[in-house]
Amino acid sequence: MAQQQLSPRQAQRLQNFEDIFADRREKGFLAKVIIVRLKDTIIMPLIALLLWGITYGVMQYLHVDFPYWLLLGPTLILGVILRELLRGLAYAMASRHGFSDLCFHMTWRRLLFKCDLVMPISQKGYAWGNLCPWLLLGLVPILLGVFYKNHLFLAYGIFMLIACLSDLLVFFKVMRFKSSAARVDVIDHPVRSGYVFFEK
After folding, report:
1. Which domain holds residue 135?
2. pTM for this predicted structure
3. Predicted local confidence at residue 2, as pLDDT
4. Which of 70, 115, 139, 150 has fewest C-beta within 10 Å?
5. Once rounded to an integer, what is the mean pLDDT over residues 107-119?
6. Which segments cross the bilayer (predicted)?
7. Residue 106 has pLDDT above 60, yes or no
């Protein structure tokens, strides 16, 4: 298997990660690397796209005259950006140094805007950082759509609720990680889709 060619930024992040990893090991931390399979992260947006089509079909059946399909592209782009900004805000609140412990970047190969941690934060902070987009972009618009009988909020909320299911999956995986250690920190893997637990 050929090794992936890293960009200068990725190489710098990898070097930073290796320095943190070595420092934590020196201080007596145990490390556990969790890699998320690509199919686990891609299947949810595909389901969301299917659900958007179903939502559009229902709107047509109900004779709602607004062309929702015109909003699909901007909704996807805005949703992805808001998702990562919310995650970054939650991570920054759980971090010692705020936004300086984060890296916002564009992954052109996958056409993804991402927010990654470059310094470890607490297990709960990492978990809640992954839950925020699911709650605020999915659940809240659904509740607003139901309360105000607004089809656009409802459709957007359902779409984002499904699109952010991978975040919900990470939340439960991180919270389910049990350790007898007094301290558990988490950091994003700099190159692969996944994260690393540090226990002490």
Report:
1. 30-199
2. 0.77
3. 46
4. 70
5. 78
6. 42-62, 68-86, 127-147, 153-172
7. yes
Other CB atoms within a 10 A radius of the CB of residue 179 amount to 13
Best-predicted range by mean pLDDT (25-29, 41-45, 164-168): 25-29
CA 102 from chain center: how many Å? 13
Residue given tokens 């592209």 in the structure block:
73
Cα 172 to the center of its chain, rounded Å: 13
Confidence label for 67 from pLDDT (cuts 50, 70 and 90):
low
Task: Answer whether 199's CB lies under 8 Å from 181's CB.
Answer: yes
Identify the H or E element spanning 25. helix 8-26
Angle in degrees, 0-180, between the axes of helices 151-163 and 38-61, rounded to the nearest 10:
160
Is the residue at 89 inside a domain? yes
Q: Report how far apart, in Å, the C-alpha atoms of 86 and of each of 10, 14, 130, 157 are.
A: 23, 24, 9, 15
Q: What is the mean pLDDT of residues 169-197?
A: 85
Contacts of 113 (CB under 8 A, 6+ apart): 80, 81, 84, 104, 105, 106, 107
Residue with tokens 């927010």: 115
| Beta-ladder partners of 31 | 198
- Please indicate, yes or no, if residue 18 is contained in any of the structural domains: no
- Residue 81 is assigned to a structural domain of this protein: yes
68 within some domain: yes
